[in-house]
Amino acid sequence: MATIAPDRPQAQSTIKVIDADTHLTEPWDLWTSRAPAKWRDRVPQVKMHDGAMSWVIDGDKVIGLKAHPNSAIRADGSKVRKLDEFLALEFDDVHIGSSDLAARLRVMDETGIHAQIVYPNILGFGGQAAAKVDPDLRQVCVEIYNDAMAEMQEASGGRFFPMALLPWWDVKAAVKETERTRAMGLRGININSDPHYHEDADGRLIPDLASPHWDPLWDACSSLGMPVNFHIGASEQSMDWIGQQGWPSLTRDLRSGLGGAMLFFNNGRVVANIIYSGLLDRFPRIRFVSVESGVGWVPFMMEAIDYQLVEIAEGRKFAMKPSEYFKQNFYACFWFEQDDIAHTLRRVGIDNCLFETDFPHPTGLYPIERLEDRLGDLTFEERDKVLSRNAAKLYRIGI
User: Core-most of 30, 52, 117, 308, by most CB within 10 Å?
Assistant: First the structure.
């Protein structure tokens, strides 16, 4: 299949670009081809439901209406930029590189990308769609997904790095799966940002991520060097794509654009809660990543929580200023931001920024044109860090 191969000065660069946020359009047989017989009819699969081919789980619970491929890149390499056209796309309409590893590697070669960090679609960016079924089935779905991702990572020859899903409804199981996927070679986890809206297997509300309940997971991630990734929309509460952000008088496509933009800011809520929770004093070596959120909001948010701590919560203290934890424990990803981007990246912290494309999603940076030219007056060392070495260090990628 042909893809757009734009003029790209970075193709001759010595920088091995690492794309810190992409997505996999899950093949229709990802779960069914790997599931034991007793689970095969219940794991995620595509079948006819209410007159439309849809992703379903547990036989009849829809988790992907019309089996939408979640890709805006057509089979010929062109990109859809109208909401209704995007929503009408079917699996066979989109570029094979959305779902097929060999084709994905060709896209990466054509666009000057050395390696990609990869996130899911069907079970939710934080695995939240698994909450629709019982814990045993959830566990099977998570394990099959992670096994499949480990296979793809191995087959990629050190270029394709999916982040592991976790059984976040059970912290002991989450620790065990973190250890298992680390042993398989996976390089990080992603998790539901708002588990406290869900119940555990005993019907009790799960504590929020600020609770010591989660300390065993943070300890495991810290000791194993597994970064914790919060992709935007990683919970039902944060995923409001066309919902409440836009006013009713706006057209649906404009409401979608506004909803998508507001998702970026929602990750600031997650970051600020983690900082105010105090857990970073207990786990100073843990690393969190704010994925697909942009970076421009970070300086304002950090200044705001420093200010609010003094003015609203006098007497509350941490080992450092709230904003200092961002420099120590967090990364954020940028892609579309260009206006004075060098200044913005320096304010956020050159060592705290990762580059992403979000391929093949609608807001993704595709085709990638004049990548290094977009970075203003950053020095070569600064470019090397934000485009490559920061991600290489964080995710243990050889460059």
Answer: 117
Q: Report the DSSP beta bridge partners of residue 53.
A: 48
Contacts of 6 (CB under 8 A, 6+ apart): 111, 367, 368, 369
Phi first, then psi: give them for residue 72, nearest 5 degrees. Answer: -105, 5
Total Cβ atoms within 10 A of residue 148 = 18
- How do residues 333-350 score in pLDDT, each as one tens digit? 999 999 999 999 999 999
Q: Which residues contact 32 (CB under 8 A, 6 or more apart)?
A: 40, 43, 45
Phi, psi of 300 (to 5 degrees): -65, -50
Q: Specify the amino acid at residue 61.
A: K
- Classified as helix, coil or strand, 50 is coil
Confidence band, pLDDT 50/70/90 cuts, at residue 6? very low
Radius of gyration for the chain, computed over Cα atoms and rounded to the nearest angstrom: 20
Q: Provide DSSP, 24-35.
A: ----TTTTTTTS
CATH architecture of 9-40+97-395: Alpha-Beta Barrel (3.20)
For the record, the structure tokens of 171 come out as 């912290």
